[in-house]
Input
Amino acid sequence: MRNLTLLTDFYELTMMYGYQKCGNKDKVAVFDLFFRGREELSYAVAAGLEQAIDYIKNIRFGEEELSYLRSLNCFDEAFLNELKDFRFTGDIYAVKEGSIIFPYEPLMIVKAPIFQAQFVETALLTLINHQTLIATKASKIANNTDAAVLEFGLRRAQGPDAGIYGARAAIIGGCVATSNVIAGKMFNIKVSGTHAHSWVMSFPDELTAFRKYAELYPDNCLLLVDTYNTLKSGVPNAIRVFDELKAKGHKPVGIRIDSGDLAYLSNEARKMLDEAGYSDAIICASGDIDENVLIALNSQNAKIDTYGIGTKLITSFSNPSLGGVYKLAAMEDESGKLVPKIKISNTAEKVTNPGLKKVVRFYDKKTDMAIADLIMLMDEKEPDGSPYTIFDPENPWKKMTIEDYYVENLLVQVFKDGKQIYDSPDVKEIASYHKKCSSRFWEQYKRVTLPEIFKVDLSEKLFNLKQVLLAQGKD
Output
């Protein structure tokens, strides 16, 4: 495994140096990692926790790292010696991968000496932000089609890591396979792919190219039919080769269309395949597809069984950043008491929620569907099933009393006193967990355009604490 210890912003180190010189390095601090809301991100799918765990476990300042930091002439030897012995000794709570999470809810809470908690900020953000973003995009895509979705984005990803971990996140979000071979090996996920246009063009004619491919893969023959003319040559030549395979006792898989009017072409190709006796042959479509294109294709009754989606998935094309942040929520005072902290801003969305917190989700006992989330202080008693009134923290007069419910605490403890106490499931288990989580939300909360906003409220105790700190006008 690569040493990612220096995967950080320089100001994390300068602050750590300051904490040491000011005598604050051992004071316990609480940081929340969360994302802010906007229409494109009315919800998110948590991902990246496994890599975050690996990072925390393997922070080591070796001689190479220390020599580099020494060469910057910014830190003294006492600080570098402190780094030499650096080990994470705190607590971390996190939302399980695959969970649906909403703006301002902590995806992760870090409670540790501020020297440690400050340092891990940048790496945790980059690990959680990226995979959560791609898992969310994959979830939106998968949620808008009954067809299987394949992740085809490696060549368009912003570098190898984005391609590898983006593929992992895409599987979590609902893709069933990836074209990415190294991701398939690393995460034990299904790999998929057929041939490109270059295969067809490398032969004297399309029919010869199809025949040669069928000879190589007689029981896995899916042919790309749009190199020259999809309906006049591609599909007819594919059918001819399918007939030859069938005569030899093999069953063709289907065709792929990579360009053109996918609704029209898929409908016409479906008719041609059905008339030729290949009603079970699948039609795979690829190209510049995302959830908006899928909605349009659905409305036009496109006859597509599988989608291969690359650029717009692996880059989260319409929304290239999760915008996750890492904010101080509490810190020990001189007496050792944990004091809530708040960031105040003229921009309401940037005002933070103070204190060490937890998030509980209400579910309707009859339907098993999610009703609302409640952000509470960690020491508060969770709702016990008796009628519970929640209110909108921005408009407190908007209230709702919930009855006949049960609650789930969304955060699990991952590290305790620096020791890992949570084992990540494999990617297939996480994907299955996400599918279950998603099924417990009504479609209006997940729709692409103008989604209904899911209720995320503050407990009365947390709300009152926030008001007091806001009134004080200081953190």
About this structure: The chain has a mean pLDDT of 97. The two ends are 40 Å apart (CA to CA). The chain has two domains: 10-135+320-472, 194-287. The chain has 16 helices and 21 strands.
